[in-house]
Amino acid sequence: MGIGGYLLVALIGIGTVFLALIFLMIIIKILTYQRKGKVEDALVVEETSEQPAVEPVLAPGSAGELKLYDTDPRDAAMCMAIVADELGVPLNELRFISIREVKE
After folding, report:
1. Which of 43, 69, 81, 90 is an S-S bond match for 100, by CB 3.0 to 4.6 Å?
2. Which domain holds residue 90?
3. Residue 83 to residue 92: CA distance in whole angstroms
4. Quick check: is 59 in a domain?
5. What share of the chain has pLDDT > 70, as a percent?
6. pLDDT(10) > 90
7. Banded model confidence at residue 26, pLDDT cuts 50, 70, 90
8. Tens of pLDDT along 64-81?
9. φ, ψ for residue 90 (rounded to 5)?
């Protein structure tokens, strides 16, 4: 087999690879187009359905969100435990909104 045969085999191989890539590109475009239509349909359904606002689910005994300002979480937990102990009230019955370290 001469150089012309080798070039023909190389061209057939390269052509096969390019045809496979073009085929994959077409399949991806079709699937993307279909998915885009489904996503738009889902968005329309979401916008039209009127559901009440869902409240966040809190852990049993928790009383909401706590904001810490310049305070280590470990120190905040210690302060909350001390306050609950001094008041004689279980910690899950108290509600702390924020804790801030006072620097002197």
Report:
1. 69
2. 67-100
3. 12
4. no
5. 72
6. yes
7. very high
8. 678 888 888 898 889 888
9. -60, 145
